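Q: Predict the bound structure with zinc ion.
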Amino acid sequence: MQEGYSGGSFEASYARLGARLERKTRGWRCDSDMRGVNSEHLQEGGLRVDSHEVGEARIKEMTAGVAKYMRGERELYFRHSEALTAEWKAAIGGYFHQELLGNIRTVILQGARIPPPPFYTEAKKLSGGRFPDFVHMASITYLDVIVFHDEIKQRTLFHGLVHAAQMAFLGFERYVDLYVRGFAKNRSWLAIALEDQAYKLDARFANDPTRVFSVENEIKLWAEEGRFDS
Ligand SMILES: [Zn+2]
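A: Predicted complex:
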């Protein structure tokens, strides 16, 4: 059911939420400096890494491609999505902004898998193989829609919600820009600061679910410290 949904409204809703969460983070730097790939990254993992720096023009193209892909998938899956259940909201509610949880949609794929994205081959080559096979991922967040393979697990949901909160806080365009720059710089999907934070926070949640913390505050802190630019 899509009651109350009109095309594009999630963007406005996210922008409002992001503006509220932003508070004092204006002025944090946008680091467009592209460092060369570290020599230790070369030829790791079997596939040869393209050691050339990714130029600014290519970064922009990649960013546009990833943004288009994510918006397209979001539209596709939204039609089949459901709101987060009251049980899930109760289980992870203390960690996230209530408005975010109210907006989030979920899809569980059973007997189907998320196909590789159009940039899969290039990303794999650029990182010497350190780019995930989407087919084997537990979930992927497409803006406000989290798509799960087979079932929703608590920690996977938490991870997906961290990405949704990052997008809400940073804005979708900025999120994709940081994601692509982080990947091009580090040549590893796991080394992207946005992923690093999501994994750190889902681990913190899993290690002690009784110690509630604000994910939005963590994102705000990382943004203030410029950690998403690394
Ligand atoms: Zn992730």
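A: The longest helix spans residues 56-78.
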